[in-house]
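Trying the structure run again after the queue cleared.
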Amino acid sequence: MPINYKAFKPDKAANKIKIEYLEAQERDHWVHQLNKARYETMLPTLSDGVFKNRVLQLLAETNSRIEEVEAIVIATQSTLPTQDIVDEVVAEIALEREEEKLARRTK
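Done. Tokens:
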């Protein structure tokens, strides 16, 4: 059964929610890429054994997660508004974050 929202206004909130979600996924992707580079750098220096096997496992898991996140990012990007609206919402989010930081500092 459809829900009649009383407080949440999807038409007003949708762009911000999508863009914040996309930002989180892009950040997740960036961290996975960082981890992948670290694991690949470590592997040639590791002796065979439990730790090297664990790093190999982590690299495989990271590669799999990168593929998942890339698919999520692509799907999310396809639902975004035009770039000018994205830029406007990103700027609004940045301003809100700065205002929150300032408010925490002045408490």
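The CA atoms of residues 24 and 43 lie 29 Å apart. Worth checking whether this holds up in the mutant runs.
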